[in-house]
UniProtKB/TrEMBL annotation:
Pfam families: Radical_SAM. Keywords: Iron, Iron-sulfur, Metal-binding, S-adenosyl-L-methionine. GO terms for molecular function: 4 iron, 4 sulfur cluster binding; catalytic activity; metal ion binding. The keyword Iron-sulfur applies. Its cofactor is [4Fe-4S] cluster. Residues 88-311 form the Radical SAM core domain. This is Radical SAM core domain-containing protein. GO terms for cellular component: cytosol. It comes from marine sediment metagenome. PANTHER family: ANAEROBIC MAGNESIUM-PROTOPORPHYRIN IX MONOMETHYL ESTER CYCLASE-RELATED, SLR0320 PROTEIN. The keyword Metal-binding applies. SUPFAM superfamilies: Radical SAM enzymes (SSF102114).
Length: 339
């Protein structure tokens, strides 16, 4: 990132990558330095030894230790959900992390830089967390992140875990629907899955290929058909303004949406392509022909127009954004004309 003097006094430390170890070491060192009144040289020397930590030292030089620990997910303790004020919510949802990292290489994602490898928690670890959530008697639903069907065998074991242990709490998950078979859809239903979220992004094969989203729109449609036969709710995610996108490809995607077998329980969500630092969109922006027109990171929320491409300038993107948001809103109201 470019140096920004407006923010240099707002940030004391940055934890890079997986922060459980670096943040804990930092916290202990800060407490120790206050209690023992360590001199600044000794303090900074210890700070520089912490993997995955960046800070400005006393000479105003940026110290960065880029090497960071890869966390063994099996060693992480269960979240202390009992400390949260559950009575403040009418409907409570517990979010459970199933894995870290991703084998996919989507241009808009930063997981390739955030995590070194893809790791999946054991079924036993997930089951222990589910039981802990149920024991609190305050949660109505569990969402599992991220993609639980990276591996077919794990996916089957995951679903069978609910069946074999007679777990009744409703749950949802993120999956790739292009690989879901009719048998797997039935297994999801039997396991108590109520909601599936999936990233479709675009119906245009060229746009998908340019952005390293390796899935076929027709296979996605088939997967959705399989899932909807089991009456499982779907949240379908799309991205507007990716490299290679044109007005015609947006229209193609809208027509594709209209042909999907979705009903009034399902949702369509459209997001603006956002070049987060660490993603291909950011790192390869010159190669993609991306022109960044918004540098205020408060607007990097997938709702604002951040860049233009050769095909779509800001004026065109504003027009298209208005159209897809209208589609999104109308679909939620079950008014989308599928004629």
């Amino acid at each position: 990132l470019e140096h920004d003097k407006n923010t240099e006094n707002l940030i004391d430390f940055i934890c890079i990558g997986e922060a459980e170890n670096s943040f804990l070491k930092l916290s202990k060192l800060l407490i120790s330095s206050v209690l023992n009144q360590k001199n600044i040289i000794a303090f900074e020397s210890q700070m520089k030894s912490i993997s995955g930590l960046a800070f400005n030292d006393s000479n105003e030089d940026l110290s960065v230790n880029l090497s960071h620990d890869e966390i063994n997910l099996e060693n992480l303790p269960l979240p202390a959900r009992y400390k949260l004020p559950q009575d403040n919510y009418y409907y409570t949802v517990a979010n459970v992390i199933v894995n870290r990292g991703c084998p996919n290489q989507c241009s808009f994602c930063t997981r390739q830089k955030m995590f070194k490898t893809t790791r999946i928690r054991s079924i036993e670890s997930i089951l222990a967390e589910i039981r802990d959530i149920i024991s609190l008697q305050t949660y109505n639903h569990i969402n599992f992140y991220d993609n639980i069907n990276i591996h077919k065998k794990y996916f089957r074991n995951f679903c069978e875990m609910f069946i074999e242990n007679d777990i009744k709490i409703p749950w949802g998950c993120e999956i790739r629907v292009d690989t879901i078979t009719p048998e797997e859809s039935k297994l999801l239903k039997e396991a108590g899955c109520r909601l599936i979220a999936t990233g479709i992004e675009s119906a245009n094969k060229s746009v998908l290929k340019q952005n390293f989203k390796y899935q076929d729109p027709e296979r996605v449609r088939t997967g959705i058909i399989n899932i909807k036969k089991q009456n499982i709710t779907i949240q379908a995610y799309f991205v507007l303004g990716l490299p290679g996108e044109s007005e015609n490809s947006v229209i193609e995607t809208i027509e594709y949406i209209k042909c999907l077998p979705l009903n009034d329980n399902d949702e369509i969500n459209y997001f603006m392509a956002t070049p987060y630092p660490g993603s291909r969109l950011w790192d390869d922006r010159e190669k993609y022909g991306i022109k960044i027109i918004e540098k205020n990171f408060n607007k990097y929320d997938c709702e604002h127009i951040i860049f233009e491409t050769g095909e779509l300038n800001k004026e065109k993107l504003i027009k298209l954004h208005s159209i897809v948001k209208k589609i999104e809103k109308e679909y939620k109201k079950c008014n989308l004309n599928k004629e």
